[in-house]
Amino acid sequence: MMQVNVHQVAIKKASGFNLMSVKEFMSVAPSERTELILQKKVQFLNETGDVIPLQEAVRSIVRNYG
User: Fold this and answer.
1) What is the pTM of this model?
2) What range does the domain containing 19 cover?
């Protein structure tokens, strides 16, 4: 299985999306990150801007930042 790396995180806002690095996303309080994910307001993107499925993104983040 090919490993996927999360390059950026897109947070849905009223006027579109705010992009942030994974490091910035990890600095957000865990409860706030969880709430954003549960509300489906987060997309994880690879280097080319393609959306990474949630399970793969979490694996990548844990592997690289956990």
Assistant:
1) 0.90
2) 8-65
